Amino acid sequence: MLTKRIIPCLDVKEGRVVKGVQFVELRDAGDPVELSTFYDEQGADELIFLDISASHEGRKTMIEVVEEVAGTLAIPFTVGGGINAVSDMRSILRAGADKVSLNTAAVKNPELITDGANYFGTQCIVVAIDAKYDEELGSWRVYTHGGRTPTDLEVREWAKEVVKRGAGEILLTSMDQDGAKTGFDLALTKAVNEVVSVPVIASGGAGAKEHFPAVFHEASADAALAASIFHYKETSVKEVKRHLAEKGVNVR
Amino acid sequence: MIGIIDYGMGNLHSVSKALERLELDYFLSGDPAELEKADGLILPGVGSFYDGMKILKEEKLDGFIRDWALADKPLLGICLGMQLLFEESEENGPTEGLNLLPGKVRRFSGVTAEGEAYKVPHMGWNKLTFKQPEHTLLQHTEPGHVYFVHSFLVTTSAEEVLIATAEYDGEVPAVVGKGNTMGTQFHPEKSSFLGMDMLHNFAALVKREVTARG
């Protein structure tokens, strides 16, 4: 059986790792290459790098970071942020990333998912979805631009659409839980997982190792992502996995 | 020196990087005349069996690889590269493979015998069961987890080519081989320490063969 994956996420700005707290406050948490080796040794199953640089120079730096990481890391990694065209995907995959993650660009131009899947294979295409519960909608609404811009999309409908277009995996971030450190959004994760046939990575809300078993047991997530609790060594990938194994979750 | 066969089907970069991490000499080429100079070959690959075979034929690499393997020179197929070693695939209608190992390639059904749906591709970390722990590739390793990404799998009744397997709606051939022709369904270059150990073992085999052949 496949194991449940634990994925540290590294937000990268101008070549340095930072972590957005509720998408606004940023703190410097280290060097991407050093951190990625550290996480591999800790037993991380995969890594995700999100490029949050706004500038053209920042994007070019990101390609260099990807090349450097690819040269040292022996586990798969995904790169997201600022990918707007097939040519962006190509340069990141060529630099050595295993997958690319699309977010705002996929909402603006869903054809990009189809094109990416056709050129590089569905296993390379992750669609990241940021969602927030909406009373009026009676469900979760999809947001873009790092959670700043609401769309008209309902999360399950959008998830089904991206899979139909060739997304090989969904990275689902709960904006309600992100940064709150009170646990993953089980209802959201379960709702999306029920309507798609591809792996779902739950993201947002991890504040302690005790938060991880539920997202696998109750929401059937395939993977769980966390950032700050790992970067600031509040817990470690190793501790999370040990705890999961004790709770009967199959991990590597 | 290891030659990595460059035929336009993916993961060359990650395989090269893995060899660099192990401080192994290698070169990339799609030209049989160049590849002939190598002591061992790696056939990587991501994508469709049909496209892979089509390019191998166009580049006249199919006959070259077959002759190489029939001379029992070291050959390692990775992912699609492993599947191409078999007789045929049902992908895009039956497509003939390199026919070096007995078995066929079919798609995961996505539904268990009990009618329960499961996810395809088989993507993520799965645990190996060693069938032939004494095999070259498994030297000094323990059965652990390795990283898979594939929608098609090999089916074979030839137990002797199964070196290690994983469980995913049944038995999935994970390491296969006959003589010095071998392959891994998973990505050793993405499988942390265990995968790197297997690449190291392949390189050691290549070195031994060079010495043995003088």
Summed up:
The complex is a heterodimer of chains A (252) and B (214). Chain A has 252 residues and is an alpha/beta fold. Chain A has helices at 32-42, 56-72, 86-94, 104-108, 111-120, 155-164, 186-195, 212-217, 228-231, 237-246, and strands at 5-13, 16-21, 25-30, 47-51, 77-80, 99-102, 125-134, 139-144, 149-154, 169-174, 200-203, 223-226.
General description of the model:
The complex is a heterodimer of chains A (252) and B (214). Chain A is α/β, with parallel strands linked by helices. Chain A has one domain (5-246): Alpha-Beta Barrel (TIM Barrel), CATH 3.20.20. In chain A, 37% of the residues lie in helices and 28% in strands. Chain A has helices at residues 32-42, 56-72, 86-94, 104-108, 111-120, 155-164, 186-195, 212-217, 228-231, 237-246; strands at 5-13, 16-21, 25-30, 47-51, 77-80, 99-102, 125-134, 139-144, 149-154, 169-174, 200-203, 223-226. Chain A has an eight-stranded parallel beta barrel with strand order 1-4-5-6-7-10-11-12, surrounded by seven helices. Chain A is globular. The mean pLDDT of chain B is 95. Chain B is an alpha/beta fold. The radius of gyration of chain B is 16 Å and the shape is globular. Chain B contains six helices and 14 strands. Chain B has helices at residues 12-21, 32-35, 49-58, 61-70, 80-83, 192-213; strands at 2-5, 26-29, 40-43, 75-78, 88-89, 95-96, 104-107, 122-127, 129-130, 145-150, 152-155, 162-167, 171-178, 181-184. Chain B has a single domain (2-213), classed as Class I glutamine amidotransferase (GATase) domain (Rossmann fold), CATH 3.40.50.
